[in-house]
Amino acid sequence: MNDAPPLLRDLVLLLARLAVGGIMLVEHGWGKLDKLLGGGSIRFADPLGIGEKPSLILAAGAETLCAAMLILGLFTRLNAIPLAFTMIVAGFVVHASDPLEKKELSLIYLAATLLIFLTGPGRISLQTLIAGKLPRKGFLAFLLG
Questions:
Q1: CA 128, CA 131: separation in Å to the nearest integer?
Q2: pLDDT in tens, 54-107
Q3: Is the pLDDT of residue 130 over 60?
Q4: Distance from chain centroid for Cα 32
Q5: SS3 of residue 62 by DSSP
Q6: How many other β-carbons are positioned within 10 Å of the β-carbon of residue 83?
Q7: CB atoms within 10 A of CB 37
């Protein structure tokens, strides 16, 4: 990817953010948010032992808020962390004993969020618009970029 022209690299990163964040938000986040706000009894996996409702709140938050921020390219690396963690829990805890076909989607999402975490949002992002107001050096700059 380093040999690619900068505009192509930025377009690929934009496409990755839009695809991963958009599909995660629409196909996974909305359903969990609807379940959370629906008012009925909550039946949800509790893989971390914190309770069904807190587990649903964390998963819904990652799959809606963090996915939306990924789409926008705002604090991209920071928002990729809860998404990656959610996919680790889904793939290696919730579906640990399931066959690969059952856990493959969470593993693909995990790989994609890790890719986005490592590469950052690219220049076609809200992050680029506000970059002058953020730290430019160190680990904090990496996380916010």
A1: 5
A2: 999 999 999 999 999 999 999 999 999 999 999 999 999 999 999 999 999 999
A3: yes
A4: 15
A5: helix
A6: 26
A7: 8
Residue 126 token pair: 């809200």
Does position 131 have pLDDT exceeding 90, yes or no? no
3-state secondary structure of 76: helix
Rounded CA-CA distance 53/123 in Å is 37
Place of tokens 């690219």: 122
Q: Which residue is associated with the tokens 């009894």?
A: 41
Judge contact between 20 and 70, C-beta under 8 A: yes
Hunting for tokens 């969470």 — which residue is that?
106
pLDDT of residue 116: 96
pTM score, two decimals?
Answer: 0.86
Task: Give the orientation angle of helix 6-24 with respect to helix 76-89, to 10 degrees.
Answer: 50
